[in-house]
């Protein structure tokens, strides 16, 4: 049949037992209306193939991006063959929220045979394994492992989805998008709390959300919320996803992302803490989507290895879970626009009534299996309630909503979270404001060990005046012509004999043999320490997302660590194969936080991290030693 031109046509088609054709009903971020988009649906292979033809201002394409598209970045995934579908927006109607509520089906959704694919005990076992075998062995700072509730919808699936939408509109609050999307092959209904990425007027924004305060639909208790805001596990979890999304912003915005917040996002069954990242960019919005697949809040960090871990432990495809809806279009001046919420708190319903509700928990070093099991139940509560599979939260009052985010003590507790963070990412800065004359114009090569912290590091070095190139560890790119080579961070055991470890060791050895100025960060530092004759071993407890004040060559510095391994030494100086080496180490266990010698330096921490308020100062000190001469007095760079 022809696509519906308004909601009345759509519901009339359903009442007649006819599929109304593809459509989407979307309420965005507290709006008093919903958009009805209609048009044909097609399948494309790549994000670059998403149609975005020149035309009038407004939305042009709504895409359903499955998790398997992460393979476009070369990352691992279980390929479940779920398609990248896109609805071409031929018609758009703006419908008042009150009118929509009046006509949507007002009836309970009925389901049967509801069960998780992994029981609570099975999921708790997976959590324990990830904590011990992945975070405990240096494979990453955090990982998101999901489970899926399966059920069968009784009655017409699309009618059930619209009834669930009505329930979400009435009872869920704080959602970024509340929606139904129907393509004919599937129907998605949900209330996603989280913007993944948006582009408007050249401003790129991301919205990392982490930390879950559960109140089960009852009014949130202020004292309990304040305890939650002070909880170390919840604080560190948000900092880690903030770092990970800053890595993405560093790839899509010319000067990286500025951090705004944190804020409290209050929803019907729970509350989250969140930041907003903003930066100017000129990329095609489809490239922005590609470079930001997918949010660390639904994958983990570092991203590339998180995808490997997900594939190993989940063993099944994620379908649309952790992917995005993406609304692409143009503004009045012809500039591209993008609005992309993450596909979480979302149910997928097949035409035969098969229902899937995926949900995950973020596993960090402080996690416990029982708490993460409970978190999956809490996160699913809103959508499950709308589908008749859980208790309803109270309906929203007609008057002003009481927001704990407005409480002075809550606001103070949120503001206090920024006190220990790096001002580099919090403050606005003009280009050139931080440039160091002796570094300006010098060329630096960063070799990425599979952790895009290197993108943030590139922005910091660029802010100091260097011209920076980043290459992956396996690239056969020459390192000649650079004044400085940075061997960067990445996951893995530095004592291992994998291709990555062999390649990075060989690179470091060549740089040291050639006397080339070299800076090694985290994994690079561990490999450098091994070449200098230091012992490198696993810490008793991981330093993932940990901030510490450490002595650094006579100066106390506050810095962020993401490491499971460390070099160790029993003295502050030693002679090595490349001359004397000065070590900054922990007196209690001999852990080496930094080292320096003639023409080289290594740091175990991440100076570029938002957890390193002294990171930029440390970089300046080290680089002034490694590159002491003004740019105009440099001799040609040597060969490696």
Automatic annotation (TrEMBL):
GO biological process, one term: L-tryptophan biosynthetic process
Keyword Ion transport assigned: no
EC number: 4.1.3.27
Glutamine amidotransferase domain mapped to chain residues: 445-622
Gene Ontology terms, MF aspect: anthranilate synthase activity
Keywords associated with the record: Glutamine amidotransferase, Lyase
Gene3D superfamilies hit by this protein: 3.40.50.880, Anthranilate synthase
The protein's enzyme class: lyase
CDD domains (alphabetical): GATase1_Anthranilate_Synthase
Catalytic activity field: chorismate + L-glutamine = anthranilate + pyruvate + L-glutamate + H(+)
Domain Chorismate-utilising enzyme C-terminal per the UniProt entry, residue ranges: 121-379
PANTHER family named in the record: AMINOBENZOATE/ANTHRANILATE SYNTHASE, ANTHRANILATE SYNTHASE COMPONENT 1
UniProt protein name: anthranilate synthase
Species this protein is from: Micromonospora radicis
């Amino acid at each position: 049949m022809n696509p519906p031109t308004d909601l009345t046509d759509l519901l009339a088609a359903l009442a007649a037992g006819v599929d109304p054709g593809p459509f989407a009903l979307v309420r965005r971020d507290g709006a008093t209306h919903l958009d009805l988009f209609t048009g044909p649906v097609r399948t494309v292979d790549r994000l670059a193939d998403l149609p975005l033809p020149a035309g009038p201002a407004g939305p042009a394409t709504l895409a359903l991006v499955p998790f398997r598209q992460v393979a476009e970045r070369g990352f691992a995934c279980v390929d479940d063959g779920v398609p990248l579908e896109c609805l071409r927006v031929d018609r758009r109607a703006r419908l008042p929220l009150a009118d929509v509520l009046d006509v949507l089906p007002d009836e309970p959704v009925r389901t049967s045979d509801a069960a998780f694919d992994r029981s609570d005990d099975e999921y708790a076992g997976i959590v324990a394994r990830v904590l011990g075998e992945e975070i405990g062995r240096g494979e990453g700072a955090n990982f998101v492992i999901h489970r899926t509730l399966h059920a069968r919808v009784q009655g017409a699936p699309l009618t059930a989805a619209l009834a669930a939408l009505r329930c979400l509109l009435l009872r869920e609050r704080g959602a970024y998008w509340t929606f139904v999307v129907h393509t004919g092959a599937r129907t998605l209904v949900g209330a996603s709390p989280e913007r993944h990425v948006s582009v408007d007027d050249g401003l790129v924004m991301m919205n990392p959300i982490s930390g879950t305060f559960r109140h089960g639909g009852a009014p949130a208790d202020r004292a309990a919320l304040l305890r939650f805001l002070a909880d170390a596990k919840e604080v560190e979890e948000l900092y880690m996803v903030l770092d990970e999304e800053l890595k993405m912003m560093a790839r899509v915005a010319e000067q990286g992302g500025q951090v705004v917040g944190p804020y409290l996002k209050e929803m019907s069954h729970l509350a989250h803490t969140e930041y907003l990242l903003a930066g100017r960019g000129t990329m095609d919005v489809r490239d922005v989507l590609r470079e930001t697949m997918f949010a660390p809040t639904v994958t983990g960090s570092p991203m590339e290895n998180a995808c490997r871990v997900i594939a190993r432990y989940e063993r099944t495809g994620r379908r649309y879970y952790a992917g995005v809806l993406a609304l692409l279009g143009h503004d009045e001046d012809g500039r591209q626009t993008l609005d992309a919420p993450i596909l979480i708190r979302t149910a997928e319903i097949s035409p035969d009534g098969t229902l899937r509700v995926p949900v995950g928990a973020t596993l960090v070093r402080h996690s416990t299996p029982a708490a993460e099991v409970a978190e999956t139940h809490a996160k699913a509560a809103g959508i499950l309630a709308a589908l008749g599979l859980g208790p309803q939260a109270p309906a929203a009052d007609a008057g002003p909503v009481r927001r704990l985010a407005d409480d002075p003590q809550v606001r103070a507790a949120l503001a206090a979270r920024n006190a220990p963070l790096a001002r580099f990412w919090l403050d606005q800065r003009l280009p050139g404001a931080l440039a160091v004359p002796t570094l300006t114009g010098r060329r630096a090569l960063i070799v990425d060990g599979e952790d895009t912290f290197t993108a943030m590091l590139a922005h910091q070095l660029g802010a100091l005046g260097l011209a920076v190139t980043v290459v992956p560890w396996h690239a056969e790119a020459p390192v000649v012509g650079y004044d400085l080579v940075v061997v960067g961070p990445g996951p893995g055991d530095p004592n291992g004999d994998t291709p990555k470890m062999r390649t990075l060791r060989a690179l470091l050895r060549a740089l040291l043999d050639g006397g080339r100025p070299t800076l090694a960060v985290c994994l690079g530092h561990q490999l450098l320490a091994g070449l200098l004759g230091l012992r490198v071993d696993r810490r008793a407890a991981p330093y993932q997302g940990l901030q510490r004040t450490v002595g650094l060559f006579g100066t106390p510095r506050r810095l962020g660590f993401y490491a499971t391994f460390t070099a160790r030494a029993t003295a502050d100086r030693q002679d090595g194969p490349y001359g004397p080496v000065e070590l900054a180490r922990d007196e209690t266990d001999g852990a080496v936080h930094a080292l320096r010698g003639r023409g080289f330096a290594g740091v175990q921490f991440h100076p570029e991290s938002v957890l390193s308020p002294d990171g930029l100062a440390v970089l300046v000190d080290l680089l002034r030693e490694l590159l002491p001469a003004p740019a105009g007095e440099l001799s040609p760079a040597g060969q490696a």
